[in-house]
Amino acid sequence: MDLFEKCKRFTEAKKVMATGYYPFFIPISSGQDTQVTVRGKEMIMIGSNNYLGLTSHPEVKQAAIDAIKIYGSGCTGSRFLNGTLDIHEDLERKLAQFMNKESALVFSTGFQTNLGTISALVNKGEYIITDRSDHASIVDGCRLSFGKVLKFRHNNMSDLKRVLSTCPKHSGKLIVIDGVFSMEGDIAKLPDIVELAKKYHARVMVDDAHSIGVLGKNGRGTAEHYNLEDEVDIIMGTFSKSFASIGGFIAAKEEVIHYIKHFSRALIFSASPPPAAVATVSKALDIIIAEPERRERLWQIARKMHEGYRALGFDIGDTETPIIPILIGENMKTFKFWKLLFDEGIFANTAISPAVPPGTARIRTSYTATHTDDQMNRVLEVFEKVGKKMGVI
User: Fold this and answer.
1) SS3 content of the chain, % helix, strand, coil (to 5)
2) Which of 154, 210, 225, 283 is catalytic?
3) Active-site residue identified among 48, 182, 240, 270
4) What is the CATH number of the domain that holds 32?
5) What does the pLDDT look like over 129-154, one tens digit per residue?
6) Judgement on whether residues 267 and 326 belong to the same structural domain of the protein
7) Same domain, 196 and 128
8) Using DSSP, how many helices (H) and how many strands (E) does the chain show?
9) CB of 88 closer than 8 Å to CB of 282
10) Structural domain ending residue among the three candidates 265, 290, 315
11) CA distance 79 to 267
């Protein structure tokens, strides 16, 4: 059979396109803000991970411009060779200090951060234990490692205990979890995970992509939220959410960072983050530290929307964060729901299998500290209208 035969047979997406309900790859012709322009139409954005609203902050944009003037547009090489700038190392020092860890390491994307960290650390004869709802980058990092992968039911500590008990006592073990789960909006049960990790002599890595800038008194994420910063071995973060850029990092003990720097293929064989992205993250970190009121405002909005959706009768699952899923169920019904929102000027996201379990398709919404009350009231008004029309509420 010809290699491309499967491409010819893949028609599901084109069938949805033909209906006019296709919700993916929508081009936006403005900046990522609480209001965006799509095909000449102004829309309220509730599908962005721009949690603190820093993508349009004037100081953040100026930092990117200044970096390009000094360093140019790119690094033209990997961190391992000619692609490490002084601003990469400056950012790593700032991140390590902020995260209360000995050292930090910056990667070109968040996805590569998990790929490069997990695959470098876990070798043959060792074990990776993951939550079944972990992000795809964790899943793929596990696939690239030579260790054995074991999964436990989502946020189910009894099942985690069962899985850990099957691992050989003296083998290396790494538990990898999302701090905040991107499709559910709930928070990992980190206190229980840490307790089990100690009992079974496992290390703990937390993917805090959706937690840093959001959770914790100072915005340091899930470990700070639970007052467990000294108990988590590796914290991973991305720059495409609260940091308003692109890239990722890990923070851990110096010896762990040193090892990963020399064994992570995703780091060694990828071009390093460009100067503008690095400078953007550095300035965003300054603002995260200096302006805690942004995080406070974000949580005001999250609470308002939690209460609003539940009062209308929507099923938003177990979310505890500014990620709020609206459970619909069937794929095509979810696409139609999305299109009605879109026609009313609301830009949200759809999540279907395999991103979520079959039969649990949803509208995934997320919020920004700079959303206004009027915008949120309009969103609830449209959801009520569409929910009743579709028979969801």
Assistant:
1) 45, 15, 40
2) 210
3) 182
4) 3.90.1150.10
5) 999 999 999 999 999 999 999 999 99
6) no
7) yes
8) 15, 13
9) no
10) 290
11) 7
Residue of 142, 133, 216 lying closest to 173 (CA atoms): 142
Q: Given 241, 283, 336, 371, which residue is catalytic?
A: 241
Query: Same domain, yes or no, for 136 and 269?
Result: yes
Cα(372)–Cα(33) distance, integer angstroms: 12
Q: Are residues 363 and 272 in the same domain?
A: no
- Is residue 225 among the annotated active site residues? no
Which residue range forms the structural domain that includes residue 32? Answer: 5-56+292-389
Residues 171 and 253 in one domain: yes
Q: 319 and 218, same structural domain?
A: no
Decide if 182 is catalytic: yes
Q: Are residues 24 and 66 in the same domain?
A: no
pTM for the full model?
0.95
Known catalytic residue: 210?
Answer: yes
- 368, 51 Cβ separation under 8 angstroms: yes
* 224-254 pLDDT tens trace: 999 999 999 999 999 999 999 999 999 999 9
Using only C-alpha atoms, what is the Rg of the chain? Answer: 21
| Overall number of domains in the chain | 2
In angstroms, the CA 91 to CA 87 distance is: 6
pLDDT tens, position by position, 302-318:
999 999 999 999 999 99
